[in-house]
Structures are given as C-alpha cells and as structure tokens.
Design goal:
- Pfam families: Ubiq_cyt_C_chap.
- One of its GO terms (cellular component) is mitochondrion.
- InterPro entries: Ubiq_cyt_c_chap, Ubiqinol_cyt_c_chaperone_CPB3.
- It comes from Candida viswanathii.
- By secondary structure, this protein is an all-alpha fold.
- The chain has one domain.
- Helices cover about 55% and strands about 0% of the residues.
- The longest helix is centred in the middle third of the chain and has 27 residues.
- It is globular, with a radius of gyration of 21 Å.
- The termini are far apart.
- The relative contact order is 0.17.
Length: about 325
C-alpha cells in the first residue's frame, strides 16, 4: 500500500528564477553551422549512428540495476481530468469560470504541465522488460548505449523537464512558475509511485532518500544546463556528459554531439512557439530521427498567423487566455 506523500524537504519553488525572460538560443549554438547550408543537417539518431567506435561498457553498478517487476498505469488524474465533460457539466463549468472570473491560464497549468507535458517527459525513455522499445527509447539505449536503469530514466526525464522549463521561464512569471511547479510535482509523485510499485522498494525511508537524491540531481542539472545554454556548446556538452552520460570516460564523443543537437533542436522549436500555443499544450518533442529545419522570418510570421486563427475560434470562458500570440 502506498503511503501519504510528504515532500516539503525538496519543494520545487527553489527552482524558480525571478527573471522574466530567458534567451533560448545563443550565437555559439551548434545549430549555427547548419544555417548556411541546410543540406548538411542530419537527424540526431543518424548523427550518432555514423560513429563506429567500439563500445566499452561503463561499470556504474556493483550489481545489475533493478528492473520493473510490474507496470504502473501511465495515465493519472491529471490526464483523466483533461477528458471531455458531459454537456451539463460543461455548461456548469463554463458558468463558474465566467461568474467568478477564474484565471484560466493559471488553472490550465495543471492539466497541461502536470498532464500533457509530464507525459511527454516520462515517455521519452520509458522501457519495460519483454516489451518493444519506442523509437526514442532506442535512441537512448541502443544508439547512445546508455544503461537500462531506473536512475538513467530519471536523468532523461530531468533533461526533458529542463528543456520545457526554459520555455516556461520565458512566459509571464506568475504563469511560468505555476507550469514549472505542476510539472515538478507531478514528476516526483510519479517517481515515488513507480519506486513503490514497479521497482518494489518496500522501505518508505529508502524511497524518501532516493527522492531527495533525485531532487538534488535535478537542481544540479538545471544549473549546469542553464550555464551551457547561456555560454557555449562546449560547456553544454560537458553538462550532458556529466549527467546523461554519467561522466563516462569512454563515451563516444559523436554521441554527445548527437544529444546536443537533439536538445538544441527542441529549444529552437520552442523558441518559435508563442506563449499561447505553448500554454495550451501544443508542443511535442521532436523525435531524434527527425530533422529540425531552420525557418525564415516569413515562415515564422505565417506560423503566428495560423496560431491566431486557431485561437480566434475559441470563445468559451474556459478557453480565454491573456498569454501572447506574438511571442
């Protein structure tokens, strides 16, 4: 039986910055070398597979890591609450929103960040014994040759959380803070549940210690990835090597470069999304076997126009938003 969760020791509020805007791209980005000649762009998975260096297994564990003994349900109350309500419940809900003038951008952070974006983070490296891996999981475990362990999954979840958090921190502060909080809370609630059910850890104290350790790792990753984002790709690649690649001295540098291109590509796509589109959960991570092509200013304006047309038809009180459709 699961026990009540008490996690004040690692409250996610410590992750938040008072900065209203965070730069998405930097002049030293690895993507810059592709802009002059778009024919040279390669998908991260293809870039990583081009190397043929021999693989040297890293001894991270004294014994083989635990594998899931069961499979916890993927969906949660957050995703379930995002389902379509019946007609009369919908009308009551719209009446309540309109009458009490609820801030829907704040309310929407739960189902979007704690539901849709949490699911995006979790599924990237999710694996179970005797089940086929997704294409994204194959990228991490077969192409990049990362160990198949729960802790490795956590590192990949943290990386994808950070990618989303960069965009969240570029939203108006009071909304970006809510989106970050809902996403972090949901990630740690899920980790706690999975350790108790899938990994079958019986000790509450052991689970709590793991959670505190993962939270410390998250804080460290946020700082190191932020430094890489605001400096150069050498610093960024070093942060990825230390965290995702477990500081493996025998790592294939081509693999680190491929992951760097993957991360920079996600940030590029997020940078081209408006606050409104991102706040409504329109972003999905680009698979590592796909290429992100730089777009022209004209194409960017066309995307914004299409976004405005889409949201112009949303007239219900619950669909109202003050988030920008221009940035």
């Amino acid at each position: 039986m699961l026990r009540a969760s008490t996690r004040p020791a690692y409250a996610p509020i410590r992750l938040f910055s008072s900065t209203s805007r965070v730069a998405f791209e930097h002049k030293n980005s690895i993507l810059d070398k592709y802009k002059a000649d778009q024919d040279t762009i390669e998908a991260p998975s293809k870039l990583a597979s081009e190397s043929h260096l021999p693989f040297i297994k890293q001894n991270l564990y004294k014994k083989e890591p635990r594998q899931p003994k069961t499979k916890a349900p993927f969906l949660s109350e957050q995703e379930d609450s995002h389902a379509q309500l019946s007609g009369w419940k919908e009308k009551i809900g719209q009446f309540v929103v309109s009458t009490f003038k609820l801030d829907m951008d704040k309310s929407r952070s739960g189902p979007v960040a704690g539901g849709l974006y949490f699911a995006e983070c979790k599924k990237q490296a999710l694996i179970y014994p005797n089940e086929p891996m997704s294409d994204t999981a194959k990228f991490y475990y077969e192409t990049l040759k990362l160990p198949k362990s729960f802790s490795q999954q956590v590192q990949i979840i943290i990386l994808h959380y950070w990618i989303l958090s960069v965009r969240m921190r570029a939203m108006p502060f009071k909304y970006g803070r809510e989106y970050q909080k809902k996403l972090v809370d949901r990630i740690f609630t899920d980790l706690e549940t999975r350790m108790a059910t899938e990994i079958a850890i019986k000790s509450n104290r052991t689970i709590e210690n793991y959670l505190k350790d993962y939270h410390a790792q998250l804080l460290g990753c946020v700082l190191s990835y932020d430094e890489g984002l605001m400096s150069d790709d050498i610093t960024f690649a070093s942060a990825l090597w230390r965290n995702v690649f477990n500081a493996n001295e025998n790592v294939d540098v081509r693999h680190v470069e491929a992951l760097l291109v993957y991360v920079r590509s996600q940030l590029y796509v997020l940078n081209k999304m408006t606050d409104r589109a991102f706040g409504f959960g329109k972003f999905k991570f680009v698979p590592p076997d796909q290429v992100v092509q730089p777009i022209s200013p004209q194409q960017e304006e066309l995307i914004k126009q299409k976004t405005k047309e889409e949201f112009a038809s949303m007239k219900l009180p619950s669909q109202q938003s003050v988030l920008s459709m221009n940035e």
